[in-house]
Specification:
The chain folds into 2 domains: about 160 residues, 2-Layer Sandwich (D-amino Acid Aminotransferase, Chain A, domain 1), CATH 3.30.470; about 170 residues, D-amino Acid Aminotransferase, Chain A, domain 2, CATH 3.20.10. It is globular. Helix 2 packs across helix 3. Helix content is about 25%, strand content about 30%. The chain starts with 5 loop residues before the first strand and ends in an 8-residue tail after the last strand. The protein has 8 helices and 18 strands. With about 350 residues, it is α+β, with helices and mostly antiparallel strands. The chain binds pyridoxal-5'-phosphate. Pyridoxal-5'-phosphate binds next to helix 6 and strand 15.
């Protein structure tokens, strides 16, 4: 990637949506970042341009064989009006791991972060101010070469688009209901589960649809071989508190390694509460529930930060967790992480990147 970015500003700014009624991923800002890759040359032509539809050859590899990866993170508006990012370097590291899995070219992580900061500088007015709102950042890479053979493309584009999003919890943090999926699987060891790539999400739609029809907001995935061990939930990693011990499924090659998951593990270690990373079976969970030892269940991910689970349905057996109320640990983790993100608590683990104040009032 060349570090010089050309900027072409739009002359027709959009009317911003009302912050009170922002949905997730429905509105996009005035500009986007693009850079092109050509095999043998590398990344070139980094540019910030007006947000607009893109033109691709109908034979572009991305449409047929799914050679594409993405990331997701947020920019937050602090009370002092500064704009803050939570561990963005981790997202670009993970993007490179996903790119490698899909035989796509590596990006320069430092250039990518600089490009994002440059785009945010142009779009800073789009970072909403209302409590709980943020500017969702979606970097993604697509294979653009027109070729119907199954082979890695020789040309790619890396984009960053931005979307103002509303509060995940409109009426405060509340527990969700989850259906344990026994038929479909999301990923298996050796597959692409640990990469943020489109195919994983397309293959999950069927199970998600069935769960929604039964009133469950997410599915919990089990391992692809025995349907025995817990993997993760929708687009969140999962944690359990059993008899005082905090446990999360270990990284096994099929689970997506969340940055929120990693942060929770590090934060708990910092507090002196170690997290056990190991295999957790549904049987173990059911036993813990039956003996009254399943204290808390919560999902972790950029969108909700912490999502407490109030009910699990495993083959028709309903397990209520903590009487459907948000657990103490879930609440404490949610409060601490959101305060660090917003600058209301000391960032003692050095997780936040602030948009340089020299950028303000450009
Ligand atoms: C993105 C994602 C997560 C959560 O990752 P974060 O970095 O914490 O947002 C978990 N599982 C899946 C399948 C994901 O796509």
């Amino acid at each position: 990637m060349t570090s010089k970015i050309t900027i072409n500003l739009t002359d027709s700014r959009k009317v911003k949506p009302k912050e009170e009624s922002l949905a997730f991923g429905r509105h996009f800002t005035d500009h986007m970042f693009i850079t092109d890759y050509v095999k043998g040359i590398g990344w070139q032509n980094s540019r910030i341009v007006p947000y607009a539809p893109i033109t691709l050859d109908p034979a572009a590899i991305v449409f047929h064989y799914g050679q594409t990866v993405f990331e997701g993170l947020k920019a937050y508006r602090a009370k002092d009006n500064s704009i803050r990012l939570f561990r963005p370097e981790e997202n670009f590291k993970r993007l490179n791991r996903s790119l490698d899995r899909l035989c796509m070219p590596q990006i320069d992580e430092i250039d990518a972060l600089e490009s994002l900061l440059e785009l945010l500088k142009v779009e800073q007015d789009w970072v909403p101010t209302l409590e709980g709102t943020s500017l969702y950042i979606r970097p993604f890479v697509i294979a653009t070469e027109a070729f119907l053979g199954v082979a890695p493309a020789t040309t790619y584009q890396f984009y960053i688009i931005l979307s103002p999003v509303g509060s995940y919890y409109e009426e405060g943090i509340h527990p969700i209901k989850i259906l344990v999926e026994n038929e479909f699987v999301r990923a298996v060891k050796g597959g692409t589960g640990s990469a943020k790539t489109a195919g994983n999400y397309a293959s999950a739609l069927k199970a998600q649809e069935t769960a929604s029809a039964q009133g469950y907001s997410q599915v919990m995935w089990l391992d692809g071989i025995e349907r025995k061990y817990i993997e993760e939930v929708g687009s969140m990693n999962i944690f359990f508190k059993i008899d005082g011990e905090v446990i999360t499924p270990e990284i096994n090659g099929s689970i997506l390694e969340g940055i929120t998951r990693k942060s929770i593990i590090e934060l708990l270690a910092h507090w002196g509460t170690p997290v056990t990373e190991r295999k957790v079976s549904m049987e173990e969970l059911a036993l813990a529930h039956a003996s009254g030892k399943l204290e808390e269940v919560f999902g972790t991910g950029t969108a909700a930060v912490i999502s407490p689970v109030g009910e699990l349905n495993w083959n028709g057996t309903i397990m209520n967790v903590n009487e459907g109320i948000t657990g103490e640990l879930s609440k404490k983790l949610y409060d601490t992480l959101t305060k660090i993100q917003l600058g209301d608590e000391t960032d003692s683990l050095n997780w936040v990147t602030e948009l340089s104040s020299s950028y303000v009032n450009m």
